[in-house]
Write a structure and sequence with these properties.
The protein is an all-alpha fold. It is 73% helix and 0% strand. It contains five helices and no strands.
């Protein structure tokens, strides 16, 4: 994939991660997003889907939010 597309994907993924972790340094989130980009399975997803899939184990479930 073109380098510009990778940069955009990483930036979009980092933005999605920041929605979950507002207090984490944005540069660290970009590093995490770059790591996600290196994973072929996650890279095949949209940045939002990849971030959501990666965050799934730590994201509160609907069941936790209701009770």
């Amino acid at each position: 994939m073109h380098e510009t597309a990778a940069t955009i994907w990483i930036a979009a993924c980092a933005h999605r991660l920041q929605q979950q972790w507002r207090t984490v340094d944005p540069l660290q989130l970009e590093e995490v997003a770059a790591d996600l980009w290196r994973d072929e399975r996650l890279r095949s997803m949209t940045p939002d889907e990849a971030a959501r899939a990666w965050l799934e184990p730590v994201a509160p479930s609907a069941r936790d939010a209701s009770g």
